[in-house]
Amino acid sequence: MRSTRNAAFLAMLAACATTGAAAIEPAGAPGVRFEHGDWELACDNTRTCRAAGYHSTSGSDDDDAEAAGNGEPLPVSVLFTRKAGPNEAVRGEFQIGNPGGDQATDQLPQRMTLAMTINGQAHGKVLIEQGKWTVDLAPAQTQALLSSLTRRSRIAWTDGTRTWRLSDKGAAAVLLKMDEFQGRLGTPGALARKGARDEKTVLPPLPAPVVVAAAVPRQDLVTWPKARLDALRAALKTQAEDCPVLTEPGESPNEIIVRRLSGGKLLASTLCWRGASNTGDAYWVINANPPYAPELVTSYGAGYDAGKIDGSQKGRGMGDCWAFEHWTWDGKRFVHTNLGNSGACNGIAPGGAWSLPTLVTTVRKPGA
């Protein structure tokens, strides 16, 4: 059976497919992630926050069903991005569903002008072109949306034939959480709970940590005889409680790949677990000679290239939502340099609608 931790990680990915609950993050994750209704929030370690909202997922809005023409709402999403600090403006982006493949978007006109309405009142237009499904909202449109989302509102974009409706369910809670995280509650610039507190009291932005990536050999693969690999396998098993493919009885011995790093260290990797939509590799930093003293970096790796471990995993088989994670070799250890996901599994776009990180860093090459 897969370990409890593996199951928990896959549950985190599955959380992309639903709303109305707090998402699960790995222990020690920086920033904050919060979901409510059809809205979600991700704030990273620089205190930049991103709030994404979607069409209704409850299936209870008769107008949504009518607009789609097939009993389902037309998929749509809006993203608000706000940096930390006093008097920072909110950037708004709009995206209609474009899941790829043989989809209804293939039948849309090359150019569409969509009228934006809130509670039946006009708020300008947006231009959508075939293949360019994401556009910036005008500042006035962004402000109108933010003002309307703290109360019950009917928000739509239409070309007169088709209508995309944005859900307001959960938006007020998400905007309140954003204000709280950035220290804006009770200030004139707050989104959900304005007040007279001085804007100067708002929390300042934090710098992204700088990680200097160490150079690794271009020809990095190491060839070891079977006896030595068997000894390494035995050592890895002592640090592989989350790797059923490696440790559970009945599993065939899987290939162990050894690569050169720098500073006399090596990187060992092997298949760790299998899931419905993903597989996970484990990566360890080891000594070049016994005792190997393996140090586990992750059990959820998806690839490695030139000193960088990729931990991207699908939220579901169709690939419309992903969790992403990266580690970078700095000459002594693999540093966690990126963590987040692409938003809810709502059929917005291949690979997900947005990038919603909770950990960001600046990675530099040696000497840069």
Percentage beta strand: 25-35%
Task: Give, in spatial order, the strands making up the sheet with the most strands.
Answer: 1-2-3-4-5-8
CATH architecture call of the largest domain: Sandwich
| Computed Rg | 24 Å
Q: Which residue ranges are poorly predicted, with pLDDT under 50 across at least 5 consecutive positions? A: 1-28, 61-69
Order of helices and strands: HEEEHEEEEEHEEHEEHHEEEEEEEEEEE
Instruction: Please bin the fraction of helical residues.
Output: 10-25%
First-to-last CA distance: 46 Å
- DSSP strand count: 23
Can you tell me the overall shape? elongated
Number of helices: 6
Give an overview in words.
With 368 residues, the chain is an alpha+beta fold. It has 2 domains: 171 residues, Sandwich (Immunoglobulin-like), CATH 2.60.40; 155 residues, no CATH class. The chain contains 6 helices and 23 strands. Strands 1-2-3-4-5-8 form a 6-stranded antiparallel sheet, with helices on one face. Strands 17, 18, 19, 20, 21 and 22 form a 6-stranded antiparallel sheet that branches. 40% of the residues are buried.
Topology:
Elements: H1 4-14, E1 32-36, E2 39-43, E3 49-54, H2 62-68, E4 76-82, E5 91-96, E6 111-118, E7 121-129, E8 134-136, H3 139-148, E9 155-158, E10 163-166, H4 171-181, E11 210-212, E12 221-222, H5 226-237, H6 244-247, E13 257-260, E14 265-274, E15 279-287, E16 295-301, E17 303-305, E18 308-310, E19 313-314, E20 322-329, E21 334-341, E22 356-360, E23 362-364
Parallel strand pairs: 11-23
Antiparallel strand pairs: 1-2, 2-3, 3-4, 4-5, 5-8, 6-7, 6-9, 9-10, 12-13, 13-14, 14-15, 15-16, 17-18, 18-20, 19-20, 20-21, 21-22
